Amino acid sequence: MIIECRNLSKNYGRTAALNDITLTIGEGVTGLIGPNGAGKSTLIKIILGLMKPSRGTVRVFGLDPWVYGERVRKRIGVLHEKPVFPSWVTGYELLKFTGRLRGLRNLEEEIEEALKHVGLWNVRDKRIGEYSAGMVQRLGIAQAILGYPELVILDEPTANLDPEARKEVIELIKKIKEEKGSSFLISTHILSELEEVCEYVIILEEGEVLDRGALRELASKYYAYSLTVRASNPLGLIEVLKNLDYVKDLALKGDEVTLSTSNPELLADTLSKYGDEVGIVFVKENPRLLERIYLKATGKRTIFNFQ
Fold this sequence. Notes:
By secondary structure, the chain is of the alpha/beta class.
């Protein structure tokens, strides 16, 4: 286990940013989601040893980060939200300083690899003050992954990036996790992107853990898998599905039936069994799985307050 929090609370005066939360974060890619003010940034600061909790305990790699902050932070790469770097140094110099703090060997090779990953190798000698907002964001990602630390914490990693660059960041996370074995804790408002890469989810709401678990387990729990099925006999399809305990929210529009399910594999078997009988033309899985998990877990109708 990488991170363990027990009965963790943090107060700012009379305001509780975190209220008696208990959670564990293991290897893999974990998504930390919740609206602004949910306590995500406070939790990250406590994990890094930058803030002392009011009550409770936190252990990172088995260590108290408030007591052993330097040892903990050497094993973690971090991208803070809206990163700010000294404008007078170059991108290369910033990573060289970071690498020395982490005690990295083969530092020049590590810097070159990190900057090439984010497309900044050709501007490595340019001062950061001359970088665009997107370039600063990519430099922050390079700093976080430098040396492939055991844990990489990314707070809004795709902010200020164009759509193509955002896709590249998601693919980079997948690659580093698979090839280098780094684990990730990612906090973001863009749930559709997080869904592509995360294996586990923690939902924070008003300083409390509303739910947590593997993405697939939460999707089953909240019947968050959504399908659209077109059939020549849609009413017959509804008759087949309406009494199944793993199917909910059947809706008919024209010759298409939309539904929610807790067990897409079992549903696929059922559709295969009755496909000829009801004339199934196609089956489409609808996007925004993680958004539906969040909405069903919180009982909200929109996620507009993420922005």
